[in-house]
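Reviewers of the previous submission asked for a worked example of the structure-prediction workflow described in the proposal, so we include one complete record here. The input consisted solely of the amino acid sequence. No template or homolog information was supplied to the procedure at any stage.
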Amino acid sequence: MSVLRKRRRAKTSDQPVPAAAVVLAVAVLAVFVVLTAMGLSVETVIALSSAAVVTAAELVRRIVAAAAGRRRG
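From that input alone, the workflow returned the following structure tokens.
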């Protein structure tokens, strides 16, 4: 048997959630609650929130990619 073993690839469920993703998710939820409380219709708030989620998802993707680049380099 070989002394070198293949490293087990982490499953998606094993990987920790980046802190930035959690912070952005909480921020989007807070904005949703505040805008709804201010009297905007739920449809308007959902439209605004979906645009914010797309922007937040891109930001999280870039943060994760940058972190992965630092670990490799």
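The chain has a mean pLDDT of 77. We consider this example representative of the routine output the project will generate in years two and three.
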